[in-house]
């Protein structure tokens, strides 16, 4: 059910709370705690990936996505709240190389880089 909900979501990235709400809409008898456990288990099995989005100095939000794409990074617009996927094989090779040099295995999450997208920046300029 978790994978179906994520697959049916056009944004591809969802908060656990939104997934739980979608589950309740589909099956009112489902236990939320079981659903949350499934999300964490699927993440540990690397079926799902986590994307941590810094909202401010003290808060982050965690989005989940199906881990079916090639490795990629995330950019997040703090104005329109759009998440962008960046696929760059050369960058991924460099990151893998740096992990290997440090003797680390990468975790199953990405820390989104935040900023203001071009559309929001241009909209801000036209309002002045």
TrEMBL record:
Coiled-coil boundaries: none
Entry binding sites for Fe cation: 92
SUPFAM superfamilies: Winged helix' DNA-binding domain (SSF46785)
Binding site for Zn(2+): 77, 80, 117, 120
Cofactor section: Zn(2+); Mn(2+); Fe(2+)
InterPro entries, per the entry: FUR, Fur_C, WH_DNA-bd_sf
Protein name: Ferric uptake regulation protein
